[in-house]
Amino acid sequence: MAKKGQQVQLQIEVGTDEEWEKLLQKDGLIVVDVYSEWCGPCLGMQASLKKIKLEIGGDLLQLAVAKSDGITALARFKNKSEPTWMFISARKMINLMFGADAPKLTQVILDELKKEKAQQEGLTTDRTPMEVTEMADEEKVRHEVAESKEKEIKEKEERKKAKELLERRTKECENIITNLPNYGTVLIFPSARDKYKEVLNEIIDEAGLLIQQTEKVTLNEEEIKEMCFFSQVEDEFSPECLDELYNKQALFILLKVKSTAEIEDIDDTILTIVYGSHKKPPGAKESPAEKLIFEIEEEEEVEGKVKKEKVDLMSIWVPPTAEVRATVLRMFFPRITAEFTIAPPPVKPEHIAIVFPLNKRDEVLHVMHQYPNEIMKHGVFSSEIPDATKLIAKSFRQLEKLSPTDRTYSEKLVVQVSKQKSECVFAFAQLEPLYMSPNANEGKIECELFFPEEYEDEGMAVEEEEPQEEPEKTKIISDEEGGTGGIAKPYYVSLKK
């Protein structure tokens, strides 16, 4: 029995595998508040739980708080912020509930206490016991929804990147084609590097072209894919050709129209020079492409016998279109194309989501003002759960204009913060947020849910505008916002000095 004046501990605290094992050995119904170290247990529900324990549950009900960070069986709840209630009987999980809904939690406990009493009296119940490490039905649904949303976000991001890349590459090609109409290129394979001059030089000169520059290259798979961005690799190069290009040094030739020559279409001219009237590989008879064909022997086993077969490989390649030509010029002759290329968009910095109650908005805005370049987005939401929240307002002015019936006065302020400056993240952490993404990967997913791509297009700004002269209004200040439920004048906070 506790000594006089000593508080009786009604909730058992566990944080290790050993303590968890001891908890499972207890009789009766065990209700566990599973939490992560960074956010702590659900303090708002403790009074209700203790009341149920003292007035109804008695020895049949055991209350506990479990820090999931150090308990192997609860690893799946690590870094989660949503209140999680696990119901255990005879070492098995018999129910699981999420959220801080006091009436709902109370009802679940009362129902499970009835079943626990019935079970101890030898009666059958509708319980479906499962291992603590198994996912409950609601968990499975949530997991599937989360995976689906994560997949959707990734696919959307990939589509956006692909679209932006296509637009950038297309514009670059247009710039190069327009500004460098007199430059073309030819790829000489390793097998033809020693003899291409005697086949090509004279015909190039007669066509009104000159060799401006040569560039030795050993190509890799990524470079070939980029070269063929506006075509298909398999349409341009056979596997045997690719093998040669990947393993030996080839040569790109930069061709330029002579100042005394007049050539309307340099692509058509070079295709005709190299391939003859066919204008494509393997080339017409007696064309330079045909003369430079390289022959190799391949072995093939047929009916147990090794059969040797001769295979012709092309040894010269010309970009088939103006877009492919422009791509090759950009990649291998940057000296002449640099001014016509477009810098890729800046990489979005790693970021996290940080959630605060509205009564901390002055402190949060102060930090936002200190690090304006690290604040990517912010808004007011119905809850801190990214996949189950609703946007309430994009600024505090919008929030103040809402009708009281449109508010709960328990909204959350969510800030998307760049991780580039650790001191900024630390400053926010010092304000004791309700939630902070545990890492950049989680942060990316959560911020996509809070702030989808179209969010920026709706005019959200980091800085709040200075208010105009307006008639005074009244509003209710809730406990969470730092008030007592009384009437107060509205106020606006600006990030501008």
UniProtKB/TrEMBL annotation:
Segments for region (Disordered): 460-497
SUPFAM superfamilies according to UniProt: Thioredoxin-like (SSF52833)
Q: Where is the composition biased (Acidic residues)?
A: 460-469
- An example Pfam family from this entry, by short name, is DUF4746
**Which intervals hold domain Thioredoxin?**
14-104
User: Per the database record, which ranges form the DUF4746 domain?
Assistant: 290-466
Q: Which domain of life is it from?
A: Eukaryota
Instruction: Quote the Gene3D superfamilies the UniProt record gives.
Output: Glutaredoxin
Q: Which InterPro entries match?
A: DUF4746 (IPR031827), Thioredoxin-like_sf (IPR036249), Thioredoxin_CS (IPR017937), Thioredoxin_domain (IPR013766), TXND_domain-containing (IPR051766)
| Protein's recorded name | Uncharacterized protein
